[in-house]
Amino acid sequence: MTKNEVFEAITQNPVFYIATVEDDQPRVRAMFLYRADEEGIIFHTATAKDVYKQICKNNKAELCFSCNGTQIRISGELELIDDNNFKDEIVEHPSRAFLKAWKEKGAFKNFYEAIAVFRLKNGTACPWTMDKNFAPKEKVQL
């Protein structure tokens, strides 16, 4: 699998699970991809959520996508993108109508402070399928 095939597969299957750590306890939850390309794997969350606090304390994470029979795990370090123009771009995307409604209705005291955007760049993807269950792991540098 090439880097571009990874980006294409996860873009077509945007729901993923993220594993973080809180103290010595792993935490996993579902998230929703915003974009995946040469700029990185980008998603957002609310700053009030535990996942935000966990990432800020330890920015190493693993993302797991299920892509039509292929599991793609992506490991790396997350960086915070603190750019209000980029947050506005995300809000205007058709898949983020819920964010637009929250922003317009004033669901947060300060929308820009309430939303955190993260990017995983230069991570390592590890595709897996049942037919290659015991084969050596394939690693794709992103």
Describe the structure in brief.
By secondary structure, this protein is an alpha+beta fold. It is 27% helix and 43% strand.
Task: Describe what you observe in this structure.
There is one protein chain. The protein has a six-stranded antiparallel beta barrel. The radius of gyration is 16 Å and the shape is globular. The protein has one domain (3-141): Pnp Oxidase, Chain A. Helices cover 27% and strands 43% of the residues. The protein has five helices and eight strands, in the order αβββαββαααβββ.
The count of domains is 1
Low-pLDDT sequence parts: none
Q: What would you give as the CATH superfamily?
A: Electron Transport, Fmn-binding Protein, Chain A
Give the amount of beta strand, in percent. 35-45%
SSE topology string: HEEEHEEHHHEEE
CATH class: Mainly Beta
Strand order, sheet with most strands: 1-2-3-6-5-4
CATH topology: Pnp Oxidase, Chain A
Helical run tally: 5
Q: What portion of residues is helical?
A: 25-40%
Write down the overall geometry: globular
Index terms:
alpha+beta, 5 helices, 142 residues, Pnp Oxidase, Chain A, globular
Question: What order do the helices and strands come in, and which of them pair?
Answer:
Elements: H1 3-12, E1 15-22, E2 25-37, E3 40-46, H2 50-57, E4 60-67, E5 70-81, H3 84-92, H4 97-104, H5 111-114, E6 115-120, E7 124-128, E8 140-141
